[in-house]
Design goal:
This protein is α/β, with parallel strands linked by helices and about 425 residues long. The chain folds into two domains: about 1-215 and about 395-410, Glycogen Phosphorylase B (Rossmann fold, 3-Layer(aba) Sandwich); about 225-390, Glycogen Phosphorylase B (Rossmann fold), CATH 3.40.50. It has helices at about 15-30, 55-65, 90-100, 165-180, 190-200, 225-230, 255-265, 300-310, 325-330, 345, 360-375, 375-390, 395-410; strands at about 1-10, 30-40, 45-50, 100-105, 125-130, 185-190, 210, 240-245, 270-275, 290, 310-315, 335-340, 355.
Length: about 425
Amino acid sequence: MKILIVNTSDIQGGAARAAYRLHQALLAEGVDSQMLVQSKSSDDYTVIGPHTKFQKAMGKMRPTLDSIPVRRYPARTKTLFSPSWVPFAGLVDKINAINPDVVHLHWIAGGMMRIEDLAKIKAPIVWSLHDNWGFTGGCHIMWECERYKQTCGACPRLASKKENDLSRKVWLRKQNIFSKLADMKIIGLSSWLADCAKQSSLFKNHEVVCLPNLINTETYSPFNKSQARVLLNLPQGKKLIAFGAMSATSDINKGFKELAQALDHLPADYELVVFGSSAPQTPQGFKQKAHYLGHLHDDVSLRVLYSAANVMVVPSLQENLSNAIMESLACGTPVVGFDIGGNSDLVDHQINGYLARPFDTNDLANGIDWVLSAINYNQLCENAREKVVSTFDSRLVVNQYIELYQHIINTQK
């Protein structure tokens, strides 16, 4: 069995880390797996990235080139929108030259490939959806919009009132190509995203299955809390609230504003630990003391961070299957977030964390306080760990992927 995992990058970003974990788990099971990326950060020889300086430079330029059509909409929101039109990537030639049994696509925007390139791939395609882009006219986060169930157009993300706008044109391109890929399998990584894909006009005629991301529960496991705080120079006697993501304080979807509002309703003797962002030049004005740890990239640092905290807060406004939630639970730290997207696949309300009413910052504060004040706090921590070990452990989940690949290969014979 020869599997090729395709993602824009190998270890930078949530989708990349999830795809790379699957790649590693396949290798551990003896599967011939390779990963093909536009931007390579690791030194892993099983990851194929650009080789020449020119290829590396083009890989960095392609996201900017891909955004050119979007700039015709000056009133657009900050939500990422990908037309995926940039030609001459040479990616399909690489895929076909590798000649895998199955091509497993993950996050393929950022100018990595044109929509039309999909139809040129010779091997069967599996596509894991890390956000909404696969079934929309270009937006990655659809928010409240349900025009993906029809034909997009008049896109609120573009602040467009025209039916035949860029989102409609991208939707039509996808419709044309996806109709030629009837056997393409779609994976919704959460129950929520799988349901969205099934309801979409673009994937309604495709097989959609729900298969989660996986995690190595030995790499992510509880670490002594006192020692973790010593390593990170955090106070021993305080209740610590962790919050973090890539661009944790600047990405509107990560819910930093909502967290700040919730903190107004919490005691001043709690303390906040922020990772994914450095300390701002102007203090945020929290009544709680805040510790900014900057960017933590490696698994060891993240394990120590989650173990140092008493609770992890993930107040995202839209979430698929959060790496941060899964990692925190695996380390035995309860999680609080809004009851949106795929969060309920991971967080069992008042069993291993708390799911607040969507976007209700008072209830978010209630959830944080409930966890930190829980009489059965140690049981919450045990439940958190058990949830991930029993449902998302890499050795368990990878076999489900292998079964899917084998089924696809068998049907091609």
